[in-house]
Design goal:
Blueprint: E1 4-7, H1 9-31, E2 50-56, E3 59-64, E4 68-72, E5 80-85, E6 89-95, E7 98-103, E8 108-111, E9 119-123, E10 131-135, E11 138-142, E12 147-150, E13 161-164, E14 171-175, E15 178-183, E16 186-189
Antiparallel strand pairs: 1-14, 2-3, 3-4, 4-5, 6-7, 7-8, 8-9, 10-11, 11-12, 12-13, 14-15, 15-16
């Protein structure tokens, strides 16, 4: 199954918020017994705090605007296991069975499997990130200016720069083991060799 993370941050967040808002508005009607307004769709949650959802294979996650992070366990409405409750939690990405969160402080954490305490710091505030993406074998970030850096698998180690452009990096996307960036109207695909 395709796991895709495209960070056009504002647009993606607006879409997630809009979908959550529509689902929550209509969900109130569905809960009191009205017909499902979207045949072929099943409501999995009804919470207006949902800020973002991400999917990786069979794993569905959501983050609330208060920093709470949940994983769907399979039962609609009640089947959400809480993984974290940090008010600094801002965004999620997931790929290849791994879940990552970006804090508003720019710290990047990887989930190790134990709710609440099972988060490993892999990038700290000294390595700023405004965009974070993940796909099979790649976790990358952009600092919001000219650089794209890749996680080496060593927590808190320097992330090597794999792309630089004087004019800035506007977006980074990752899907199916591939990494892409957009700058000055050009779209670049990462070949595994650092540089442009």
């Amino acid at each position: 199954m395709l796991a895709q993370q495209c960070d056009f941050a504002l647009a993606a967040n607006l879409v997630s918020v809009a979908v959550a808002s529509v689902l929550n508005t209509e969900a109130k009607n569905a809960i009191v017994g009205r017909d499902n307004p979207w045949p072929g769709w099943e409501m999995l949650d009804n919470n207006n705090r949902t800020k973002q959802i991400v999917v990786d294979g069979d794993n569905l996650y959501q983050i609330h605007n208060n920093g709470n992070i949940y994983q769907f366990t399979g039962t609609p409405m009640t089947g959400w296991r809480q993984l974290d409750n940090n008010p600094y939690s801002d965004r999620l990405v997931a790929a290849n069975g791994d879940l990552y969160q970006l804090h508003s402080t720019n710290a990047i954490w990887k989930y190790t499997g134990t709710p609440f305490t099972g988060w490993e710091l892999i990038g700290n505030q000294k390595l700023p990130a405004t965009k974070l993406v993940a796909t099979r074998g790649i976790v990358a970030k952009s600092d919001g200016s000219q650089r794209v850096k890749q996680y080496t698998g060593v927590p808190l180690a320097e992330w090597p720069e794999i792309f630089y452009d004087d004019y800035g990096t506007y977006a980074i996307c990752a899907a199916d083991g591939e990494l892409y960036t957009n700058t000055r109207g050009a779209v670049w695909k990462y070949t595994g060799t650092p540089g442009k």
